[in-house]
Specification:
single chain, Thiol Ester Dehydrase, Chain A, five-stranded antiparallel beta sheet, 5 strands
Length: 141
C-alpha cells in the first residue's frame, strides 16, 4: 500500500468534522476497531456531511456511490473517540469526490476517497448549478 499524500493527513484542510465514540462491538480478535466498522465510520461521516450541506435527495436527483477507496493507516482502539473529517476533493459534470480523514487522539488512522455520481435513477445527470456552488464552498483548503 502506498502512503497517501501527506497533505491529506492535515485535519485543518477539511471544512467538516464529525466525532463519534468507538464501540466494544466493533473490536476484532486483535483488539482494534475492525475494517468493516471503520468503513461504517467513513459512511456515517459522508452521510452526515451531505445532511449538513443541505443535500436533499429527490426522485429526479439520486446520488450513487460509484467508487470507494479506503487506506487503513494505523489501528483505532476502544474505548476512544474518532474524528471523521470530510472535504470536497473534486467536482465534475455529474459527480463529486469526497476526501475523508479519520483520526484518533491526533493520529491519522485512515483515509477514504469516494466518488459520488448524481443520477436520475437510471443514468448520470449533470449536477445542478446551485448544488455545485454548495460543493465548492466545502472544498479542501
Amino acid at each position: 500500500m502506498s502512503r497517501p499524500d501527506p497533505a491529506l493527513l492535515l485535519p485543518a484542510r477539511y471544512r467538516f468534522v464529525h466525532e463519534l465514540t468507538t464501540r466494544f462491538a466493533d473490536l476484532d480478535p486483535n483488539d482494534h476497531i475492525n475494517n468493516v466498522a471503520m468503513a461504517a465510520v467513513f459512511e456515517d461521516g459522508r452521510v452526515r456531511f451531505q445532511a449538513t450541506i443541505g443535500f436533499q435527495r429527490t426522485e429526479a436527483l439520486r446520488p450513487m456511490v460509484a467508487s470507494v477507496s479506503i487506506d487503513y493507516l494505523a489501528q483505532a482502539h476502544y474505548p476512544g473517540t474518532l474524528a471523521c473529517y470530510v472535504g470536497v476533493a473534486a467536482i465534475g459534470r455529474s459527480s463529486w469526490t469526497l476526501q475523508q480523514l479519520v483520526t484518533q487522539a491526533g493520529t491519522a488512522v485512515g483515509t477514504c476517497n469516494t466518488v459520488i455520481v448524481m443520477t436520475d435513477g437510471q443514468r448520470a445527470t449533470p449536477l445542478p448549478d446551485a448544488f455545485r456552488g454548495v460543493l465548492e464552498q466545502w472544498s479542501l483548503t
